[in-house]
Structure formats: C-alpha cells, structure tokens
Amino acid sequence: MAKKEIKLSATRISSFLECKYKYWCNYIEHMPKVPSPAFRLGTAVHEALELAGNIWMKKEKFTTADKKKVLDKYEEVSIREGIEDKLIHAEGKRLVKKRIDNFDLGKIIGLEVEFGFRGKEDVTTTDDVPLMGAIDKAIEIDEETILIVDYKTSKTAPTADQMKVDNQLSIYDLVASYRWPKYKRIILSLDLLKHDMLYTYRTPEERVDFEHYLKELYDQMLSFTKKDAKAQLNMFCPWCDYKEYCPTYGKACKQSEYKFQAAIKLPEAELVQEWKDVKNIKKILEERDRELSMILIEKIKREDTNPVWGDQEVYIRQNSRTVYDLDIVSKVVPHDRLVGMINLNKRAVEDYANENPAARDLIFGAARVNFTTPFLATKKIRKGKETK
After folding, report:
1. What's the topology of domain 10-222?
2. Contact 291, 238 (CB under 8 A)
C-alpha cells in the first residue's frame, strides 16, 4: 500500500481534533462543501491586502491611485466570490480601507509566504512532519526581530491564553524559525481587522513541545481509517460543511423526545457531561431552526406560495410598528394631552386624532410604519380555501 501523503495545516489539525467524521469527509473522501460568507469575505480581504503589501514593498507608501487600485481589487474578488449580502461587502471594503490607511509597521520581507503547496517550498519539522500553510505577512522590526502577521476578519478576539496555544500561530512560528533563522526573536500577531492587533510569542521550549505534538498528530492521521471516523457532537456542528451527510447530526436534529435524568442525583462528572450535551443539542436545534426558516422564507418568496403541512400552511409574517413625527404631533396637540403621549403611544395618538378630525389628516400623514425582520408562522387552512 502506498504511503499516505499528508501535510499538516492548522485547518487540518482543527478538523481532526473537532470531529473525526468531519475530518474523514473532508480529507479522505473529499466531499464537496459550500464556502461560507465569512470564508468568501476573508478571501476578498486577503487578496486586496496582498496587493497592498506588494505595492508597499516597492514604494513604502500609498498614493491615492494605489489605494483606489487596492479597493478595486477588493471589489473584483468580492464579486468573483459571490458576496451577495451588501452589508458584508461594505464591511469588507471598510476593513481594507482601514488597514491601508494604517499600513506602516516596518520593512516587509514576505507576503503570502506559501509552504507545502505544489510548486512551493516544502517545510518539514525536525521529526519529518510536512507542514502546509501561508503566512500573510512577515515584517522586519529590527536586525534581530521579525513580526509574523495573520489577518483575521472575525468579530471576536481571542484571549491571551488562547493565542499562546493557537495551532496556526504555532505553525507560523515554527516555519518562521526555519525560513528566517537569522532573527533571534519572533513576534506573532493577529491583525483583527475589525478590532486591533494582538501579539504573542513562543519560547524555544514551547517550540520544541509543539514539534512533538505535531509528530503525534501526524502519526495518528497516518493510521486513521474509516472505523475511526466517528462523529463527535459539539457546538460547531451547525456550521459544519458536512452536517447534511452526518447521521449523528441528523439524529440530533430530528429527535423530538429527550429523556433527562434527575439532575440533582447525578454524580459531578455526569452532571457536567449532561450540561455540555444539552448545550450542544440546544445550539444544534437553534441553528437548524434558523437554517430551515431561511430556506422556507426564500422558497415562499421565489414560488409565491405557502407550503402546506396537513391542515396548516406556513406563511411569512411581519409585525409592524407605527412611529409618529414628534414635531408635528407637539404642534397640534395641547400640552396637557401631549404629556400622556410623551412616548407617542400609538393608541393615545390615534384616540386624540379620532376625537379631533381637524388634526387627524396631519397626524396620520406624518406617521411612518416600520416592519420587523420577517419570521415564519403557521395558521389553519380555512375549509373551502384553495391553496396556490
């Protein structure tokens, strides 16, 4: 049997640790998956900032034309990646503009430094574990110090403790120590484009420990077989690219009767496990509900018909809220009555308008109706009604 060709990346490690079934689907069976909006946004932002870095390496400054070129690049990749949500598109453009307006950190010595990819430099650890990845940016701070930058478009920031054990940063630290050995100090940074830059580092002892950790992971991946591909329910299941294939996830979504043990009698370990299981199932069901709701709403919009289930139909419902113009109302309502409408209570305003026909048209003419986000509801089909 031919030896498996495996190269460790942060994504591969995360998948293997998170769920063995997910790992099997992705890296062994190579099942198709749909890139998420966050992935598409990250791609567009990364490619635009890569162009910005290449321009900076030549000039160490940006002209107005350079900035426009970078933003145009973002527009191009955003459209290519199919970012349909205009709010997401606008957010990405804002992030790119924010970074190119604050780009000067030092002398750039590397951009999108890929390793392990076909045609790129191979990198292996001292234990002969092949690595794969791409360092977004490497900057020389001084003759002895290098800064490794990883762009992130996520909304949340990791803690200092999380950064100290982050596998991706640890891989970059290891690769940087091989690729740029002349630098005695390696600083690692997450450039949180929606927040600030965060910094961490690895000691020589931590680097050696991480190499040993990679060796154990690598050996387990080499010996991995289908019987090891067991699904592990966790809070990330709703966002998994392979949840539709996963029987364990499907069972959790379809299960309607949950039998819970008497919590007060559970041993401590079982109590904690029960709490974790319930949290995971709750998150799965919440995300499944959101996913099914989005599909049903889109289906109703596209087909202009309400799905029928038994003697009920599912329809799109929106609550409305009427807001009156305070300036207009205050001019036509006596002060003693206005006090009772201080929050412009809809019922109070309408009562006054009905009692005073002369002010009615002006008040109602200045009213605005706002709608909530659409949501699904069900109603019983009236007898004799024909469905579309």
Report:
1. Lambda Exonuclease; Chain A (3.90.320)
2. yes
